[in-house]
Please model this.
Amino acid sequence: MSKIHVSTTINGDTAEFLCDPRETLLDVLRDRLGLTGAKEGCGTGDCGACSVTLDGRLVCSCLVLGAEAEGREIATVEGIAPGEELHPLQRKFIEHAALQCGICTPGILVAAKALLEKNPDPTETEVRYWLAGNLCRCTGYDKIIRAVMDAAAEMREAA
Amino acid sequence: MVEVHLWSGLRAQAGGREVVEVEAKTVGEVLSGLVAAHPELQEVIDAGVSVAVDGRIIASGLTEPVNEDSEVYLMQRLKGG
Amino acid sequence: MALDEYKPQKGGDELEQGHAFKYVGTRPDRPDGTDKVTGRARFGADITAPGMLHGAILRSPHAHARIVSIDTAKAEALDGVKAVVTRADFSDAIQPAPGMAGEMWNVLENVMAGDKALYDGHAIAAVAATSALTARDAVKLIEVTYEVLPHVTDVDAAMADDAPVIRDGTADKSVPPGLHPNVVRYHQSGHGDVATGFAEADLVIEDSFTTEATHQGYIEPHACLGILGGDGKGELWCCTQGHWNVQKICAALLDLETSQLRVTASEIGGGFGGKTTVFIEPVALALSRKANKPVKLVMSRAEVFRATGPTASTSMDIKIGMNKDGTITAAQGVFRAQGGAFPGAPMEFTAMCAFAPYNLANVHQVGYDVMTNRPKQAAYRAPGSPMAAFAVESVIDELCNQLGLDPLEVRLKNASREGTRASYGPKFQRIGLVETIEAAMAHPHYSAPLEPGQGRGISCGFWFNHGGETSVTLALSEDGSAQIMVGTPDIGGSRSSMALMAAEVLGIPYENIRVTVADTASLGYNEVSHGSRVTYASGLATIKAAEAAVRELCRRAAAKWGIEEDAVYWEDGYAKPSGPNAGDFEPLHISKITRRMGATGGPINGHFEATPEGAGVSFATHIVDAEVDPETGSTKVVRYTVVQDAGKAIHPTYVEGQFQGGAAQGIGWALNEEYIYGADGRLQNAGFLDYRIPVASDLPMIDTVIVEVPNPGHPYGVRGVGETSICPPLAAIANAVSAAAGVRMRNLPMSPPRILAALEEQSGG
Model:
């Protein structure tokens, strides 16, 4: 099967790749571009471990085809830290021990960042429902919710 | 002699007994003593057992010491998740 | 190192007398934090190799079928396919044997089917190709002729006279005569005389309970990359709880010398017991050997559900007698557990844990390990114990209700203490059950008022914990920093705990220590990260390795000062003369010694190898408030408190995390999660949409209380904490839901349809 040529922007950098029409955006990120931060936990959009943003909208990259990236802007966990410094969400996740194994962490960070960009002052309930599409099996979510709330508070203060 | 308590499911392999006396100074000697007294226990011991000595559960160490007056219980092999 | 250095008399009890820790008990950031929040950490599926092929596995669509023939010709002919393997490509030297004695054959048979497909999802053949898509296409071209056989998936049905026989001759000698051949192991234990005990009771309640199979539900599917050449030398990267175990099993299944296979554990995306064995790793190696190229194999989520190791489902009968004052006079339980098409359902742990929290004069427990046409069960967090607690604690709750007694008072009255004869035989050493019950009674949660429609449930729980073979090496660098190599994969922040314990001994900052999970070629044997053993056993070995390095540091200082070795002691990172008689020397910092270590006797390392046998058992008490909607049958957990004995919390935040995680998994098990099989024996919910684990909006914050009753078998008093936290939730939630709904719930999960049915039955509907 002939491959499709795609030009796109990932974390602010232009990128080009060839992909099979059946390949998902997640396959392309991981296998063709070496961006393995997004994880495949289910492949069916149920776990959120592959969360990225597509033109600013939070999506499961396992449900987007690689070819659909043409001309779009994609942001992944690899682009969250602005430079040498970690993003406040990343720092708070470490500080609160909001991860145990860490496999769900990239997806949750991408999702939480998308939430705080829309709603800088979410309630606990709003955080819980926003993150309801991101499964974590280790933590019981307690420390994740606290880390997001704490990061939001810090970001509001800094703003 | 050391008194070794078996779990009751093992009675069939130990001539109907739940307590077997063996000559032993280590956990390893407890196990070999049990097999010497009741060869049918070999299969169970090969499949894996733990031994509690005075309340301390020895999962696998054959060199752990056992005293004459130690309370010794044979237990099913411990593992976890 | 002498064994007596970690014997009970030198354990946590000694430290309790006012020992002040400097690092242990603090809450620093985990050393691998940045890797994990930036996407840099490399998990199982994140590894690649030059020239790598991709594998895929063909799986049985039948629950039970004879494999008449496998034709791989069309698959092999597909462009890009480099190898196809079947059972013929694995060792034929491994023979079946009854019970657990045949476990290596059981693993082989599970990894790749032999004569029969034993469950829906059983591996039949595998392909390696130049792309994952080609491998998937090729799998569809393999032609298998099956002779479909009758199947059974339910534990009680599998014991009935007319049940199809899965593999005759599997039963070991423990099984009494007259039982169905699917009953493959049997356990019976206890003490006293239950008949007499029941006759003395003011009230006896007898009831039956069931739990469904649940999956560990780790978010990372199994993944590996195998390289094996015709020279018998190989490399394997995989996500596993124990890479030495993977090495041992893969070597046996492929007729390799163990040492010629080097296994590296990737970061691991959750395990909870499910990654203590192998599924795809030997297949990747077999494909690689045949193709002579690296092969990567990654499971899909559906494969994880269908063909890895969920926990056992159970059917249980409990009978308990109690006096009006709350004293339990006798208790007995019958526990039937199915663990799939192989022996190994953890019914002996179900039986042994069931009544362990209580001081009982008369107790008797029986367990049956039953085979069905389901995947081979694997360990799941305190395997066997949560189900037992569900059944037993439900009956105790009902006794308390009918006798008008406070459920925590009754637990306290009957609680096991130091010296109590455990239901499984020996007497308990120092344990902390009473302390957890008292802390639960004192917690504001226990006295908080309930809203209408809410119920409160409590439960105690017990787990053994484990030690296991352990090797740790610690190496000092010239600048006085330290690197530690452990062999237990870090599933929940254990690098932090190791670094804290080493910092405590060495007296150097936590940040100056790097902890690495070493591969099988770089360190001695380590048992799997299971049995809540890592902080206990690798922690103990880390302390001992650091102490060995400190002894050498003191020796170097003594040589420099020209005094006796025992005239030098170590404090806060400095060698110091032990008193005026030793001489007047300026304390020597670790970096001053290590800077010249090459010229003063060579590199300074510490190492420790042993099988520590002092893992203390542990107990927990949980309180939960639940709200049941009688219209929909759905349940909301509104408040949850975990109280558990950690012995000594090395990193309290990660201890809390274990408590919360166990509670959350228990909530899923109690309310939603179950393997659902159709009449055709196929798994009907092999995905996270239909197998619903708790999501963030399902749960409240989970409050934690860390009780510290030191374990005499660890230098700092550590008890494992990972597993006990999942023992009480099923029962505590069942008791809360039963109170809220006004009807006793005897079958898990308490899903909305089951609750509605129970409510209708009660109202005579």
